[in-house]
Design a protein that fits this description.
By secondary structure, the chain is of the alpha/beta class. It is built from 16 helices and nine strands. The protein is globular, with a radius of gyration of 19 Å.
Length: 358
């Protein structure tokens, strides 16, 4: 019988192409920690600007819920804030507000792109994020991998330019040169911030393509505006880089793998077995229990159904060990805690029953 690994050893084994003692559970727990915020009666703004509070809440992902990682930060807006946009977080967490809103954009129109400075990594909430990673690393970073978050360049652009997606998406056809200049500046910041996170003690970095998916862009746009910038980040940061693609990533899987990223996380719309066969062990695959829709198994299923869905995912993609069990997207505030526990506990049960190591 293989000895029990720490969470860090388990995840590192999958990245090296070695067999772990069991499949790791890597979750993007964002607003799923809202219940803890409710108990402390704090706002998102109070949490995300306080390294001490952020440390305490983030730590619960492993020590309360059993995930094999600590994911930080807990929202998407920090990149836009660093470039000068303003977000509002004042509503109490119990209101159900999942993600803060941009209330003032750094740029009113594309004419200001050339004059937009690339911010220091300590701009906006950068300082709080880096301080939290340092303290988490001192506390438990030698046992649990800390995953820093970089919003994708394209999605960050929608937090910088007034109009958001309604401005950025048309630029893919009408003002390509200006969009590329903006994406280049965001990528330069992401590389610097990614390196700073790794230097502070993060084990890996992750990103998400949210609004740029199969419902909004085609393969050619993905190839021109998404792939090159993730490639620059993956090759430059100096640590493992994971890309999560919202909605159906199937048309973009080859582009995602071509970036040189260490892992690809997919939505529940992706067929895990087919994606696994496509990569042939070249990359870690993560996913993909249903959580994005109200009828997704992690949202509305029973703990027993979540456990069975977890077993099915491990059978579909975990035979070679290069797999992270995860939800198909962020674990949000509406997910029952007992279902989170069922997901995180499933790989150990699967291994104990002899389903993993033959």
């Amino acid at each position: 019988m293989m000895r029990e690994m720490s969470s860090l050893e388990r995840v590192e084994a999958t990245l090296k192409g070695e067999m772990p003692d069991r499949i790791p559970v890597v979750l993007f727990l964002q607003t799923g920690l809202q219940r803890s915020m409710l108990r402390e009666d704090i706002t998102w703004q109070e949490l995300l600007n306080s390294p001490a509070r952020l440390h305490r809440i983030t730590r619960l992902q492993h020590f309360r819920y059993g995930a094999d990682n600590l994911f930080l930060p807990l929202d998407f807006r920090s990149g836009g804030e660093a470039f000068g946009s303003r977000s509002e977080y004042v509503i109490k967490s119990g209101s159900g507000m999942r993600i803060p809103a941009i209330t003032r954009f750094a740029l009113e129109d594309p004419s200001g792109i050339d004059d937009l400075p690339v911010p220091d990594v300590n701009a906006g909430r950068g300082r709080a994020i880096l301080q939290t990673i340092r303290s988490l690393h001192q506390d438990c970073g030698r046992q649990v991998p800390i995953v820093g978050f970089l919003n994708s360049p394209a999605d960050t652009a929608t937090d910088i330019l007034a109009g958001g997606y309604s401005s950025v998406l048309p630029m893919m056809a009408t003002d390509k040169a200006a969009l590329h200049r903006l994406l280049s500046k965001i990528t330069e910041y992401n590389i610097a911030m990614g390196r700073a996170m790794l230097d502070a003690g993060a084990s890996a970095l992750t990103t998400v393509n949210g609004g740029f998916n199969d419902l909004t862009i085609g393969l050619q746009d993905y190839r021109e505006f998404i792939t090159p910038y993730h490639t620059d980040i993956a090759r430059s940061v100096g640590g493992p880089y994971c890309i999560h693609q919202c909605q159906d990533a199937t048309p973009f899987l080859d582009e995602m793998a071509a970036t040189g990223c260490a892992a690809i996380s997919v939505h529940e719309k992706v067929d895990l077995a087919r994606a696994k066969a496509r990569f042939r062990g070249r990359i870690v695959l993560a996913g993909n229990l249903g959580v994005s829709e109200a009828d997704g198994v992690v949202c509305s299923g029973t703990p027993e159904q979540v456990e069975q869905a977890s077993f099915q995912a491990i059978r579909a993609a975990g035979a070679d060990g290069r797999f992270w069990l995860s939800a198909g997207c962020e674990v949000h505030h509406a997910v029952p805690e007992e279902n989170i526990m069922a997901l995180t506990g499933a790989p150990a049960k699967f291994a104990l029953a002899g389903g993993f190591h033959k």
